[in-house]
Amino acid sequence: MWLVMWSGMEGRRPAVVLPTSTVIVQPSPFCNIDCDYCYLPARLDRTRMSMESVRSIVQFLFGVTEFAPVVDVAWHAGEPLVVPRSFYRAAFAEFARLSDRGVRCVHQFQTNGTLITEAWCEFMREHTMLIGLSIDGPAELHDRHRKDRYGRGTFNRAMAGAKLLAKSGIEFSVTSVLTVDSLMRPDLVCDWIEECGITSIGFNVEEIEGAHLTSTLAGDDATALYRQFFSTLYEFTKTHPEVRIREIVDSRNLLLRPTSCSFVNGENALGSILNFDVNGRVSTFSPELLSIAPTSRYRSFTWAHVTEDDFSTFVERVTGSAFYEDLAVGVAACARECEYFGVCGGGAPGNKFSELGTVTGTETMTCRLRVKTLMDVMAGVLEREGEQSHRHIRGRAPSRQQRVAEPHGRG
Ligand code: SF4
């Protein structure tokens, strides 16, 4: 966790560049399936990144001011397995040159699983990759939204990929998108996790972002459903401690961390995440910004090109942009007004822009669910279990110790 003070930054542009810990690379925008909530506008575009671009990305990265000791390199923003293994073999060799900067790269695929073969498993094992598999729960939930271009559900093909990974001894983490359908059936999700022996899973919400302009979670009932969903999943983890649910583990860690330990949200911190699109354009902050059309005020969400610009030029352009100025205003407003700032850090600019049309704003549908509701659920269960989890949320009920000190019989 890194410390940056945004509070009171309105009107000023903090030239704080954080160590880079995540690099997102788009090997192709193409995807072989067609989920109805996908935010990518160009998922029929079969353009592939050239090896020349990969070399230029690595060269660009040599100019980065500071890295985290381990850098996650996620091949994403399209289905990564539509690009051949020969490309990745050569690309990984290029990235290995960063060891000269003392950087260890860990490569990741976030895949829909339908193209996994034994040969891919062999490749993933050979390169000790991290694998994220997108499956939305049992067929009844998954196939409603994750369809191919013929309108057929992809559950069986995704699960075949999961089975191949398991047979090859490759650990993977599941990512599920929560729609209102899945929020209404936490029982089905828990049964499916148990039946499939899933040990690591994270839940994204169906976001209003990029090409996806609406969400089934935009209704008033989503908050109560979300609360119920995670309350059920928390109970499930008590009888299934081998299952790691990302939201539960991460929120617990955030709530129970020492008060001296600040939290910075990498999605609104310059340099923490660097994003490269298929054509070599460079962005930072939320990876989804790569796929969002510019406006008259935010004339671009990419600020450099790897063949023409270096990192310091990139930083100069970002810090001189209207987007950066507005981002500081939005994060400062969050710091001032929102009691959850200590566990959120001011939100994701990709969500703010897509939902509010500006990054100067504060609350979004996404943060209402993923931050506020989740933290309320977790703070509640932790406090019932005797933990003082309120300390990073302003305005929450007094701690258990304080309540014990009060005279009995009130309210
Ligand atoms: S929860 Fe929402 S409103 Fe609160 S700090 Fe985060 S983004 Fe801002």
From TrEMBL:
UniProt keyword Signal present: no
Keywords: Iron, Iron-sulfur, Metal-binding, S-adenosyl-L-methionine
One Pfam match: Radical_SAM
Key word Cell membrane present: no
Domain of life: Bacteria
Xref: SUPFAM superfamilies: Radical SAM enzymes (SSF102114)
Signal peptide range in chain numbering: none
Protein name: GRRM system radical SAM/SPASM domain protein
Protein source organism: Streptomyces musisoli
Lineage: Bacteria, Bacillati, Actinomycetota, Actinomycetes, Kitasatosporales
Gene: grrM
